[in-house]
Write a structure and sequence with these properties.
This protein is mainly beta and 184 residues long. It has one domain. Helix content is 13%, strand content 47%. The chain contains 2 helices and 8 strands, in the order ααββββββββ. The strands form 2 sheets. The chain has a 4-stranded mixed sheet, with no helix packed on it. Strand 3 and strand 4 form a beta hairpin. This is Lipoprotein.
Length: 184
């Protein structure tokens, strides 16, 4: 009797293991409202691997604004800003990739600064080998509140566009760039 129960138990365990191998998509079972990897606007598949990595170039993660004539003088710092995190998202639009680039960080008022609006110059650059495919310098405004010498900022550029055929060969950078604004 014990042998037959042991065989039945073994058979049931084996059946359960084989049933588990049938390939049920556990993500759909656990979340039936989970969206597919299809862009609703373009009906094109969006694969994370097609979205190039985002990086900071050396020297562009920090920005210091000095009072007029005070370059390099720590007592003349109006404000300092630093980028602490970056992210990106890509979508296909025809034969192009449209990338949304975001950078977040903190602004701190210096000895020569105080509360009020601060403009931060941030640039996004896309290059393939030695060719610049996209470059845009934008100003992001941050408000330093009265009584608090620090504030956080979030920069977003959702118009970074380049040919999808170049996606495997491009490098994308975001960072502070004091200008001038008419340079690529």
């Amino acid at each position: 009797m014990f042998n037959s129960l042991s065989r039945i138990g073994t058979a049931l365990t084996l059946a359960a293991i084989l049933t588990a191998c049938q390939g049920t998509d556990t993500a759909k079972v656990l979340n039936p409202n989970l969206k597919s990897g299809i862009d609703e606007k373009t009906q094109s598949a969006v694969v994370q691997g097609e979205c190039p990595a985002l990086a900071l170039r050396e020297g562009t993660a920090y920005f210091t604004k000095y009072a007029k004539g005070g370059d390099g003088d720590a007592t003349k710092v109006v404000h300092q800003a630093s980028i602490s995190d970056t992210t990106r998202q890509c979508r296909l639009s025809g034969s192009d990739i449209v990338m949304t680039v975001q950078a977040s960080g903190r602004v701190v008022a210096g000895p020569a600064g105080g509360p009020g609006a601060v403009e931060l110059p941030l640039r996004v650059v896309v290059r393939s080998n030695e060719t610049t495919l996209y470059s845009e310098l934008q100003k992001t405004s941050v408000d330093l509140p009265s009584g608090d010498p620090t504030a956080q900022f979030l920069f977003t550029n959702n118009t970074v566009t380049f040919p999808a055929s170049q996606a495997a060969n491009v490098k994308v950078w975001v960072g502070f760039d004091p200008g001038p604004y008419d340079t690529p």
